[in-house]
Amino acid sequence: MASDDLVIRIAGEGGEGIISCGEILSKAVARGGLNIHAFRTFPAEIKGGLAMFQLRAGSGLTLSLKQRVDILLAFNQEAYEAYVDNLKEDGILLYDPKLCHPDDRMQGSRQRELPLEALSSEVTEGTRAKNMAALGAALELYNVPVEYGQKLMEEYFGHKSEEVVNNNIKALEAGYQHSQVHYTEFKRRFDRHPDRDQILVTGNEAVALGALAAGVEYVAGYPITPATPIFEFLCKELPKFGGVALQYEDEIASLAAGIGASFVGKRVMTATSGPGLSLMSETLNLASMAECPLVIVNVMRGGPSTGLPTKTEQSDLKFAIYGTSGEAPRCIMAPVSIYDCFWQVPRAFRIAERYQIPVIVLTDQSMAYTSMNIDTPDLDNIARFRRLRPEPGTPRDGFKRYALTDDGVSPMPIPGEDDLRYMGTGLEHDESGAPNYSPENHEAMSAKRFRKLKALGERITQQPMEEYEPEGTEIGVVGWGSTYGAIQEAIEMLKEREGINVAHLHPRVLSPLNEWRIRRFLGPLKKIIVPEENYTGQYSHFLKAKFGIRPIEVHKCQGIPFTSEEIYDAIKEEL
Ligand code: COA
Prior knowledge:
Distance between the termini: 22 Å
Bound molecules: coenzyme A
Strand order of the largest sheet: 6-5-4-1-3-2-14-7
Shape: globular
Largest sheet: 8 strands, mixed
Structural class: alpha/beta
């Protein structure tokens, strides 16, 4: 269990460089050999409003956001007011006395001045580098040598100017020294392992890397927060692997282009967020109808409408499963962690290609922007799959692109490579692809398309699922997506503190369901808790409808993810 960690929350005004400070700190601390979980939340505006970065780092496992923090580093009064109550009993406030004035909620011994603006002005003649003074102070508290921070200055600010780099190095050193002199008693010493074979990635980066590992060939995108970094990453990297990434005029056009690329045999992906997914819905139906495989990564954010563009929510599940006119088979997946993003994206490509269906991968803003260090994935272990093609020499006459097969999958020719012609259309069609509206045909073709989901459902029953079933337990938690780490840590806490065993199930393929396995898990349980980051309990409704159960719903709809403490409290209340 992760008790061996230090949680520092850094907060101030958007534009002051809170995020840069947190990012560089995370990188330096991870390179210094600690495990990290680094979360950020910020307003939708470019400047102004409250920005927060929380680093949890140590030698133990760090799987989730913590509610209570060891150190609050407040750049201004707003940051203090927002987060002072999150300090642990023995937590410490570090604050800039020029902009923050603690009140009697703090006792003298638990607060220390950290004159960020003064430290920056002393060494740089300005306050711009004050966030690097904060970085220096935090680095020293993690007992990570200052060189780890210095090395990153060029990487972060080199494109601005040499002067900016030098100023930031000076401020970093000033903050580091200040911390050495004034906060020695708060410094924590951890077992550090700087030589591990690891990479530091955000969820968005893990998705993009997973797509490259899967052999993606065509990415058609339109920028939208919080999915944009996936597209930006692939625009930069995909051409190096011979692929193409193109921006279109909107989400509808990007998915339409993706269907075109899939039609001619390419492995295709697009990344979007809620409002983009809803725009895509009709085109998505076309992919189901024309049986064109492709992967859509939907990074969920607070909705509806423009909603909370920079905040997290698990609220697109129902739309992903049911948001269709007519009945359009698709597969819905949700990685359970940042590491898992890397592995589930290639799996999504395999499913899309094997069953010739669209696959929607649901991540969310918190997963997308949280960074963790993960073991460098073994690329040789990533299986790729190409769709079924017609046998060479298949005669042109009478070729049936949409032949009615047992598992619903029929060979898909590649124009220009297979000498076979067919019409791929959104209209209902017969086995050859020609439009056909007869009652018998529509029924037979609907059944064909849905047989693919049945075959997929049977296949995933054989595949591993995140499942923890201690002997004799009668209480269990079922979750999905990014809540995995918080649930897992809450369950560990219950075992350690109360001696109580709680089961945990976290399916990665949400639709079609792994029915047999889920039934087996639910069978012995008297209480089932379903925590979700939405207002209505979307997954819970889905489980109720499928299994006739009455789970205890725990909802959080605040734009920030569950902490393990919240899940712990929710389970304990039910006990
Ligand atoms: N020296 C020089 N430059 C520095 C610096 C330093 N010490 N510290 C930070 N900066 C620069 C950063 O490099 C960054 O510059 P860039 O804009 O050229 O990249 C800028 O100052 C902002 O700093 P950063 O740390 O990245 O962010 P912040 O903590 O100040 O918060 C955000 C600003 C992140 C809230 C804001 O920029 C943002 O992106 N808002 C969200 C926008 C959005 O997605 N809206 C939704 C639309 S639907």
